[in-house]
Amino acid sequence: MSRKQPRRLSTPVAIGAYTLCAALAGGLVVGNVYASTYSDLISVYLDQSTQKVVTADGAEGDADYFPATYTDEAERDAYLADVGTRISAGGITLIQDDGVLPLTGGARISVFGQDSVDPVYGGTGAGSLDASTAVDLEQSFADAGFEVNPVLREFYASGPGAEYRKTVPDVYGEGEFAVNEVPQSAYTAEVTASYADYADAAVVVLGRSGGESGDLGMTPDADGSTYLQLTREERDLLTAVTTEFDDVVLLLNTQNPVELGFLDEYPVDATLWVGAFGQTGAAAVGQVLSGEVNPSGALVDTYAYDSLSAPANANLGSYDIVNSEVDRGNQYMVYAEGVYVGYRYYETRYEDVVLGNEDPAAFDYATAVQFPFGHGLSYTTFDWTDYAVTEGDDAFTVEVTVTNAGDVAGRDVVQVYLQQPYTDADRTAGVEKPAVELAGYAKTGDLAPGEQETVAVEVPRELMKAYDSEGAGTYVVGAGDYYLAAGHDAHDALNNVLAAKGFTTADGMTAEGDATFTHQVTVDAADTTTYAVSQATGEAITNQFEDVDIRRYDPEFTYLSRADWTGTWPTTYADGAWTAPEQLLADLEIPDVEDPDATEPVTGTVSDEFGELTAAMLVGEEHDAPAWDALLDQMTVAEMDELVRVGGYATKRVDSVQLPATVDKDGPAGISDTLVGGQSGMGYPPAIVLASTWDDALAEEFGAAIGEDSIALGVAGWYGPAANIHRSPYSGRNFEYYAEDGLLSGAMSAAVVDGAQSKGVLVFAKHFALNDQETNRIGLATFADEQAIRQVYLTPFEMMVRDADARGMMASMNRLGARWSGAHEGLMTSALRDEWGFRGVVVTDQASFSVFAYEDLRAGLAAGTDLWLNTDATLWKLSDADMTPSVLADMRRASHNIAYAVTASNAMNGLAADSRLVAVTPPWQWALWAADAVLGLLMVGAVVLVTRKLVRQRREGAAPATA
């Protein structure tokens, strides 16, 4: 019996085995390098901690600086869900109603539109949320007691109508905003026959989304409509519905002010703006339709008949600096409209017509504006009486008595507007004065029929100032007559002012005003000194943004002015293709910021005076307390470098001072896992819905609700709130921002900051600043005049600092003029810190890739930026030669700001003065090491086996097989 010969190992097989093992080894090395480089991001994504706190005796630390209100998860979730529903309920705005609302209890209704089954819950990118667990409209209507046409719903959900869904761009801006409403040809006979059994009312849901990295389409599509105009299919839908049903209710599940001129064409009985829903906001829709909740929201944007009529639209989009070769420095944007954003334009031009300063043929308010800023109706009526203004040294107190004169309970909003005088001196100096500007507001409680409440609105005298960049170079209170007027909206308030001046409808007014709701203040002589210094810090206020003004490079440029509306009307600057002067090309380059007189800071040293300090010992210490210097002296250069450079979605632990690491997440509508994984908190209706409540107390409660999730999830840093301006109706991220008005945006966001910081949230208010469009936001050179910058775009951020002591900001990705915002010293230090008194940390926006090289570390540090939103541990690393005394001094200052902000946050919970931070290896790293070991052993074993077989074959005199 012969023995079976062992199978010979062929040469190709042996080579393949060696190659495979080498490739696996290489892969392991690369994988481990990447895992080490992005270790913080991986830990955040997997929601695994890298540290724990223990006391000196080994017990877990118990210092509880910011205790949670809700320790039971189910109880907390129920409360947070209720907050989301109440935000929606308070923000839903009744735009028009012929008496059909509220609907009769138990009404059998047919709900139309593909948005009825696929509504807008949030936006894309940072503002997105998981809608899989969200309350939908069907549940909302059922809870309200309505019977919804099941055949029609099935048609949209899974029948032929399911083939039609809106589309939105992704986070990178790829894709398009498209409505894709169901065409009438898709409706079957069975569907149309079902209407008869559910004919008490038709509810039509129209939706428009928004998102990060892309603006809305302003160019008409093949059907001739922009994204904010009705599509042909939507018109066909309205035609069909208004023909079939007697009572038609329109729900605007929209993020931006869509054109509503079609309400004059179709017999729609009632229109509600409901905004986007978040996870639980849709529940409020049924409550409002049934009358359980009386709508009390008010618009935060002007609804023009022509959405393209806003002067900002002339300069919104993608425009090239054709001769620039600077990395991310070849696109520009000019805010040619100056201060005339939103209602500031429409109302001011209207007043000029009434005053006789503008040709009525050039502007007709009645055909220009359909619903003004601040407009909002109710199921009840309110009477206002007893308007009174008390003048104090620092503020005016405006009082109005509001009486519910209707039949159902409801809430009302009292809005107060200020008019400054627009004089020949202003025209000469180039100081623009809008006809009215929001100066304050107050929302009543829920008033029963016949009940009244006297509301008080405090208006700071400081609002009488205007920035004069060309003359005084600071804030000035001009001579002339000032008016404080209460109104139901901006237009109503202006009509009251005009009535006080003696004008009537005979002069072209759209309605008679009521002079009894105005108060006149006369300033005899211009005041150039009072507000030439900061009321917060005493710092002198001077021009800081001359380099952001396009006139630095084009002295002949003219911004929009009410002195000559037609002659200064904006056009697209340089027709969208600018051959820029050499000075701009030079300014676009990263600047040399080395300070030759800088002194290298002390590092790695324990103070003789204070002894060894820990971060917990400085909890509650003022920013300028001497102990901070002693603490910072203990930090090493390597620790400062890593703390500043690697701050993307987490900040580093600093062992020498026992500063804890933090986890930071995006999500201005709620802490979100969309971008970096981990756990999510509650997803709320977006900022535009919150602002539409005009309810500061609710905004503060929302901030505190964010804080509850912050504590529960261990996410100390929150990339929010977001407070840029609705500069144009077509800006893609308007839903994430509050309003077209800076004061409303500032009051709401300051209230949110108050609430969030009360729970120890480290807020990073964004996007600071002039990030008011998404197109080309990475490196976009944004130009604006200093008056507009200060009085419109910086106002919300200033209010967050001065009114709420915000301890964090996020720099925008665009440039201010030629300089990246984070490297603009006038913004980051002179205005933010010196004028406003900011004491905290400024983080960049995304800085994790080489594409963001213009967000230069040295330039940013020198200007006042502290932390790079960077997840790559190797990125932004400077050479030893570059770590000069100047850079180290800037890193020291940045480390101070970061440490101060962290010690004021709930990241300190559990860390007492006698506690220690202990590094913890997260489970994913143990798993990685185990995988390394197993794969390593397998590879070694494979190599050994193959090698031994080859050696044995050689010893036996047999060459390896070749095939």
UniProtKB/TrEMBL annotation:
Residue spans crossing the bilayer: 926-946
Alphabetical list of SUPFAM superfamilies matching this protein: (Trans)glycosidases, Beta-D-glucan exohydrolase, C-terminal domain
GO biological process terms held by the UniProt record: carbohydrate metabolic process
MF-aspect GO terms: hydrolase activity, hydrolyzing O-glycosyl compounds
SMART domains: Fn3_like
Domain (Fibronectin type III-like) ranges: 412-490
Keywords: Hydrolase, Membrane, Transmembrane, Transmembrane helix
Family the UniProt entry places it in: Belongs to the glycosyl hydrolase 3 family.
PANTHER family listed in its UniProt record: BETA-GLUCOSIDASE
Protein name: Beta-glucosidase
Organism, scientific name: Cellulomonas triticagri
